[in-house]
Amino acid sequence: QTPPLVRPFGSAEQNAANSHECEGPALQSQTGGQEEEFEGSTERLLRRAREPNQACKMIELAQALLFLAIPMPHAFYAMLWTKPNVWKKVAKKTKVPPVDLLAIVALCMKVVQFFSFVFYVLTLLGADAFTETIRLAHPATLLFGGLLFAVGQALNMGVYATLGKDGVYYGIKYGKKVPWVTGFPFSLCPHPQYIGSSLSIWGALWPIIRVFPGNLMELSAVGVYWSGMYALSSFIESH
Questions:
Q1: 91-105 burial, b for 16+ CB within 10 Å, e for fewer?
Q2: Are the CB atoms for 218 and 19 separated by under 8 Å?
Q3: Cα–Cα dist 175/170, whole Å
Q4: Residue 68 clears pLDDT 90, i.e. is over it
Q5: CA 3: distance to chain centroid?
Q6: What DSSP string runs through 200-221?
Q7: Closest CA to 118 of 133, 107, 105
Q8: Which of 21, 123, 167, 208 would be a feasible disulfide site paired with 178, CB 3.0-4.6 Å?
Q9: What pLDDT is stored for residue 47 in this prediction?
């Protein structure tokens, strides 16, 4: 398997393993040559100290943005499911049907999640993280990740095709008649839309994790956290 490649945002050659430098002191003196200790050593040390610190701050910012973006739609959906009258009032003021307005807002939140995820990966692993993943991942790794993603999207599209916009966006809470479906994809698993979304997330993460094993914990935490939000939403909608 490909050795770990941990690169900072913006450059493929600076500060290897920058995510681990956040854990310890940034100031490090080199072992060779006494001239460096006397000729401009302070300036060089300060410059080397600032670079990893800036990288750490960028990683922390990207992580905070992603870990706020992930639960955002789930908290919103929980409010709509438990307090639908609130959304009815909002829709009435905007003069847009509740289901249509929810579909627009949901799309906007998905876009925020997507770009937050991309920003986090590029900041953590480097500007070429995605191209390096495609270039260096074993074909079987790409195939397995692609299969997970494809199955997940098939479940999502199956839900939308079966229930339509009214069913997917809580039309039953706003007076829409939504049929009770027992066929595909509901015949395969409960909450196929949420399971499909979780499979898609792990399908996207799997090749990245295999190419950058040094960041296994960080990337796995994203997957577990994101999947946990879908599990929480399915629990709320079941009660």
A1: beeeeeebbebbbeb
A2: yes
A3: 10
A4: yes
A5: 24
A6: HHHHHHHHHHHH-GGGHHHHHH
A7: 133
A8: 167
A9: 60
> Residue type for 201, please?
I
User: Do the beta carbons of residue 168 and residue 193 sit within 8 Å?
Assistant: yes
> Alpha-carbon Rg of the chain, whole angstroms?
23
| 25 preceded by a cis bond (ω within 30 of 0) | no
Strand, helix or coil for residue 186: coil
Q: For residue 196, is pLDDT > 50?
A: yes
d(CA 218, CA 46): 28
Average pLDDT of 13-25? Answer: 47
Give me the pLDDT at residue 146, please: 98
pLDDT tens digits, one per residue of 94-112: 999 999 999 999 999 999 9
pTM for this entry: 0.78
What's residue 177's pLDDT?
A: 85
Contact 82, 150 (CB under 8 A): no
